[in-house]
Amino acid sequence: MRDRIPLRIYSSPPWREQRPTWQDAKPALIEAALKRATARPSGNWFVAGASRDVVKGKPCGRTIAGQEVVLWRGPHGVLMAGSGSCPHLGAPLCDGAVAEGKLICRWHGLALDGTRFGAWTPFPAHDDGVLVWVRLDRAGGEEPLDAPVLPERPPAGSIDAVATLIGRCDPEDVVANRLDPWHGAWFHPYSFANLHVLETPTETEDRFLVEVTFRVAGRVGVPVIAAFSCPEPRTVVMHIVEGEGEGSVVETHATPIRDGRTAVVEATIAHSDRRGFALARPAAGALRPVMRWAAARLWRDDLDYAERRYTLRQAGRFPD
Known about the structure:
Elements: E1 8-9, H1 27-38, E2 45-50, E3 60-64, E4 67-73, E5 79-83, E6 97-99, E7 102-104, E8 111-112, E9 125-127, E10 131-135, H2 137-140, E11 159-167, H3 171-178, H4 184-187, E12 192-199, E13 208-217, E14 220-232, E15 235-243, E16 249-258, E17 261-270, H5 275-280, H6 284-314
Antiparallel strand pairs: 1-14, 2-10, 3-4, 4-5, 6-7, 7-8, 9-10, 11-17, 12-13, 13-14, 14-15, 15-16, 16-17
């Protein structure tokens, strides 16, 4: 019966009586992990949002790295993307319409089919089934890749939800927050208990391994072991490697909007081999708002962390 029920009764000291973690959270260790992450290739791909954000028959506008971008569904639902400014008189194409897979400007009816038109530039786009990506070579400045660098994900039959929040910071501040697992039980006591960092990055295994209990209610929680790693410079991934939901993933993507403004796009992809999870999949539509709420609750705190880090960096006061 114990193996069938993932919930556990746990004990933990009151918040102020937890073991301090500041001596373990060495700034040099976090900074080194951040530098390794930001040095990895992205191929100039940026997350633009959830796949569900781009629906058939309606354009979707984004600002990424200071560039206006418009996305829409072309023929057969294929993801299309391009400059968000109409080449005729600069109208915002996100306010246009989509008909027969073409993007139509609402000012004068100019129709774009996703190929180059005058000064209007299409962008490579990728839909991975959970997130949509746009490749901006001018903004990225790297050697382009044919597709974004994706982390390992659970198999088909998972439940995914995507939450998006905006912060006054840069992508590196978002990534740095996730590369500091020691703050979890102190900064988010409503969600985490008994957090222990088991492993820090090494030359052979560039990841953090963390043991933690996810609080459910009162003294009831779900203990897991999670690994944090960075497949590319603007993404931190948490894989559940042991415990309930093994194989589940939380992907945190930091997309620059402009200097000092960043979108946090967090995809939670839940998976379980339990029979109950299979029965819950038909109710995924009802579960997604709850999953988004949980992610947004954490990120309201974590954006305070990222924004504070950004403010101190801008003022030249960030601790060495």
